[in-house]
Specification:
Number of helices: 5
Low-confidence stretches: none
Helix content: over 70%
Radius of gyration: 18 Å
Number of strands: 0
Mean pLDDT: 90
Largest sheet: none
Strand content: under 5%
Distance between the termini: 47 Å
Order of helices and strands: HHHHH
């Protein structure tokens, strides 16, 4: 297995493992109304976005920055953009006519945040 294939496999493993808790945390904060397709686009977008940094770092160190690291990272970033745009399109269509309770930042939240 050459180095570029090894980088892709490692980045995909990191992305898959990291996407489950990140997607669950995101869905806990704000409900997804887009159904199964909305969940799919959301999860794939999170997966691709998580893979950007490992792709850039591993690709740069193991293969080379201009040969593989930066193009792979930009590919993951473009994939995340496309998936999250699809998620946004589906979610927008699903939210028509639904009154979504927006949680606003309150003074109490500011006091307890520790910032």
């Amino acid at each position: 297995m050459d180095r570029s294939t090894l980088v892709i496999v490692i980045v995909l493993i990191i992305s898959i493992i990291g996407s489950f808790p990140a997607s669950a945390l995101s869905q806990k904060k704000q409900k997804i109304f887009g159904g199964t397709l909305g969940h799919l686009f959301h999860h794939l977008g999170v997966l691709a976005y998580i893979g950007v940094a490992p792709a850039a770092l591993l690709g740069t160190f193991l293969v080379g920055p201009l040969r593989f690291g930066i193009p792979l990272a930009l590919t993951f970033l473009a994939g995340a953009f496309v998936m999250l745009m699809g998620y946004g399109f589906i979610e927008r269509s699903a939210r028509v006519g639904i009154d979504v309770d927006e949680q606003l930042w309150t003074q109490e939240d500011a006091k307890t945040s520790g910032l």
